[in-house]
Amino acid sequence: MRIALIGYGKMGQLIEKIAIERGHEIILRIHIDNTSEFTRNNLQEADVAIEFTGPESAYENIKKCLDYNLPVVSGSTGWNDKIELIKTYCKEKNGSFLHASNFSIGVNIFFEVNKLLAKLMASYSNTYKVSLKEIHHTQKKDAPSGTAVTLAEQILEHIKEKKRWVNEYSDLSQDLSIISERVDPAPGTHLVKYSSEIDDIEIIHTAHNREGFAMGAVQAAEYIHDKKGIFTMQDVLKIN
C-alpha cells in the first residue's frame, strides 16, 4: 500500500516507521516547508492518505484528498465543528473517510467501557457527580484533548442532566467538567470519575507511548484504502 502522509511531525514520523515495518511504502510526506508538493499529481500516486495536522488546516487538507479521490484517515483534533461538513462532502464525492480522536485499541475499548458505565450511572446522577481529567505533554496544542471530548460526548448522551462539557471546574449541575493538565513527559492519561459521599467509581486509561496510536492509524488506512464510505475505529476493530 502506498501512503501519503499529510503532516510529518512526531506522530507522522512514527506512523511512517510502523507503516514500513508492516510492508507499506511512504510515497509523499507533506509538512509546513513543502506544501507546494501537496498536489493532485502527487496524491494520485498514493492508495491512501493519513492526515495528522492541526485544527486550522485539517478540514482543507481532507477536502483536497477527497477532491482527488484519495481515501483519507484523519487523527487531527480540535475541529469538531466541521467534521459533519466533511462527512457530507465525502458522501457527495463518493469518497472514503475515517476520523478518530484516538486510534489505539486500548482507548477504543475504553470508549466502550465509558459508554456502558454512563448508561449504568444514568439512573444515579443525583447521587454521583461525574467529571473528567486528561493529562498530556506540554507540546499538545489542543485542550481538552480530542479523546476527552469523545468521552464527554458519550457521557452527555446518557446522563441527560448534563447539557454541555466545559474545560474547567464547574459547580453547575448542567456542566460536565473536563480538567486538562499539561505535564512532561505524559503521552496521555484519561480519567472518568463518578463521586458520591459514600464512594467513588473511576475508569482510567494511561498510554505508555504513542505507538498504539500510530499502529491504529495504519490499521485504519489498511481498512479503508479499498472501500467507499464513512468509517470509524469501531469498524476497523470490529467492535459491536
Compact overview of the structure:
With 240 residues, the protein is an alpha/beta fold. The chain is built from eight helices and eleven strands.
Can you describe this structure?
The chain has 240 residues and is α/β, with parallel strands linked by helices. It folds into two domains: 2-103 and 211-237, 3-Layer(aba) Sandwich (Rossmann fold); 105-206, Dihydrodipicolinate Reductase, domain 2, CATH 3.30.360.10. It is built from eight helices and eleven strands. Helix 1 crosses helix 7, helix 3 (58-67) runs parallel beside helix 4 and helix 5 packs parallel to helix 6 (146-158). The model has no long low-confidence stretch (mean pLDDT 95).
Describe the structure using short key phrases.
240 residues, alpha/beta, Rossmann fold, Dihydrodipicolinate Reductase, domain 2, 2 domains, 6-stranded parallel sheet, 5-stranded mixed sheet, 8 helices, 24% strand, elongated
CATH homologous superfamily identity of the largest domain: NAD(P)-binding Rossmann-like Domain
What count of helical segments does DSSP give?
8
Mind telling me the C-alpha Rg? 19 Å
The figure for the number of domains is 2
- Report strand order across the widest sheet: 2-1-3-4-5-11
**What is the mean predicted local confidence, pLDDT?**
95
- SSE order in H/E notation? EHEHEHEHEHEHEEEEHEH
Which band does the percent of strand residues land in? 15-25%
Q: From the helix content, strand content and strand pairing, which structural class follows?
A: alpha/beta
Flag low-confidence runs.
none
CATH class of the largest domain: Alpha Beta
CATH topology of the largest domain: Rossmann fold
Termini separation? 27 Å
Broad shape: elongated
Oligomer: single chain
**CATH architecture grouping of the largest domain:** 3-Layer(aba) Sandwich
Helix content: 25-40%
